[in-house]
Design a protein that fits this description.
The chain is α/β, with parallel strands linked by helices. It folds into 2 domains: about 300 residues, Aminopeptidase (3-Layer(aba) Sandwich); about 140 residues, Roll (Aminopeptidase i, Domain 2), CATH 2.30.250.10. About 30% of the residues lie in helices and about 25% in strands. The protein is built from 14 helices and 23 strands. The strands form 5 sheets. The chain has a 9-stranded mixed beta sheet, sandwiched between helices. Helix 3 crosses helix 14 and helix 9 packs across helix 14. The longest helix is centred in the N-terminal third of the chain and has 19 residues.
């Protein structure tokens, strides 16, 4: 039998034994509040410059160069280096005081986001209008991409091997593009009576690009030809150049503050550029770490990490020999294995925040919430943790203790109810190398939509948490 205790003793017991989720805003000092707003403004600028994976890598490279980082083969590197692969992947390192064989502090994230890609033969004419055919990339709700302004970004190689980087639709004076939607008066059978997943067909996500003709009435495909003439006059393109081009349609809107209190950032691509920005900012501010710091920004996560710019590619294994060389340390297969298994890593990916309008898909006790700090996710996957890297208790404890010691406001979470759905990250591909790794990132509402929502307080705690991790010995 428990002996009777006083109310004061009960309160003390609860405080000592119970776990309570904390709201970041309640814990911030006046100085930290100012830093939250300042960090968010820098973040919005980063998002506006990083609409595609190539642009994100370019912006990361630009910021690293300004911070004194050198390309890995540069003679004046001074231990702060980076390397770019195919303009879509970047690895950076800050050489530490300890030997590499004692392990590294590694953060991995991804720079791609759901979007509409142009097909290889995109341009066609129909009903006196010119269109681009698209093939959507990643997991999207197709209806969200209709009847909204879109910008065209990408890379084209002309017949003369001239490389052109396009960005049309971001400036106020630019034209924008759009997928037309069917008026509700005629949509009852073809849209409204169908499942949401079937109401909009992928082949109907066609981009309106032109509406004025060229030449006399008898000219064949006058509207398509007018579009080709524009592309040739402004960029020197011919239609065949579109076959090898890499062109993407993304939302044309800039990042914006959301809410009267401006506490949330609304923007495209925050999965996973919230974590990319936080890891980059943290790395730039780290000086002379004990263990070598490595951060990897991968492509193709949204399509299962396929291809030679993804986390499945052997990019880390190719980068590490350069670091051993810079530190003047011997490398062998055995030493590489020891180095990787002694390393700690964070899979820096966002978490699906609790949506109060759809509580039925969340398990409230284990769902992350906006404003409660960065989210530590022990496992991902779907159903019975299928496709997950399930972090070990010892490593989750190490992260938890570190965050508590450094005053980081954090929470835990998982992707919805067990049988509801789920999703994976790149953690499992790094775990296969022997690393200790756990998912840890910023909670997001409206994930995979053209306008995702992130709390500025959570973003700040993500940056602070990553910085504490990179400085840990």
């Amino acid at each position: 039998m428990f002996k009777k205790i006083t109310k004061k003793e009960v309160q003390a017991l609860e405080k000592r034994l119970s776990y309570h989720r904390r709201l970041v805003w309640d814990e911030l000092s006046p100085g930290d509040r100012e830093k939250v707003w300042k960090t968010a403004e820098d973040y919005k600028s980063f998002l506006n410059a990083s609409k595609t994976e190539r642009e994100t890598i370019f912006e990361i490279s630009r910021r690293l160069t300004l911070a004194g980082f050198k390309e890995v083969d540069h003679s004046g590197s001074k231990g702060r280096v980076f390397q770019v692969w195919k303009d879509k992947v970047l690895a950076l390192a800050i050489l530490g005081k300890e030997p590499l064989s004692r392990g590294m502090q590694i953060i991995v994230s991804h720079v791609d986001a759901p979007r509409l890609d142009l097909k290889q033969h995109p341009l066609y004419e129909e009903a006196d209008l010119a269109f681009f055919k698209t093939h959507y990339y990643g997991g999207i709700k197709k209806y969200q991409w209709l009847a909204r302004p879109l910008a065209l970004h990408g890379t084209i190689l002309t017949a003369e091997n001239k490389k052109i980087n396009l960005a049309i639709g971001e400036k106020e004076q630019d034209p924008v593009f759009s997928v037309a939607d069917l008026l509700p008066h005629l949509a009852r059978k073809v849209q409204m009576e169908k499942k949401l997943s079937e109401a909009i067909e992928g082949e109907k996500l066609n981009i309106l690009v032109g509406s004025t003709p060229i030449g006399p009435i008898e000219t064949k495909e006058r509207f398509k030809l007018a579009t080709l003439r524009y592309l040739h006059e402004h960029y020197g393109l011919i239609e065949e150049d579109l076959i090898s081009a890499e062109l993407e349609l993304v939302p044309a809107e800039p990042a914006r503050d959301v809410g009267l209190d401006r506490g949330i950032v609304g923007a495209y691509g925050q999965d996973d550029r919230a974590c990319v920005f936080s890891a980059l900012k943290a790395a730039i501010e780290v000086e002379k770490p004990g263990r070598t710091v490595v951060i990897l920004f991968y492509d193709k996560e949204e399509v299962g990490s396929e291809g030679n710019t993804s986390a499945r590619a052997r990019i880390l294994e190719g980068f590490l020999p350069r670091l051993f060389s810079l530190k003047g340390e011997t490398l062998s297969p055995q030493i590489l294995d020891v180095t990787l298994t002694a390393s700690r890593a964070i899979s820096a990916d966002v978490a699906g925040a609790l949506d109060p309008d759809y509580p039925e898909v969340h398990e409230k006790r284990n769902a992350p919430r906006l404003g409660c700090g960065l989210c530590l996710t022990k496992f991902t996957g779907s159903g019975g943790k299928i496709g997950s890297s399930d972090a070990h208790a010892e490593y989750v404890y190490w992260i938890r203790r570190l965050f508590n010691q450094k005053g980081i406001i954090w929470q835990t979470g998982e992707m919805g109810k067990v049988d509801e759905g789920g999703g994976g990250t790149i953690a499992k591909f790094l775990a296969a190398l022997g690393l200790e790794i756990v998912d840890c990132g910023t909670p997001v509402l409206s994930m995979h939509s053209p306008f995702e929502l992130v709390s500025k307080a959570d973003l700040y705690m993500t940056y602070k948490g990553y910085k504490a991790f990179l400085r840990a010995s």
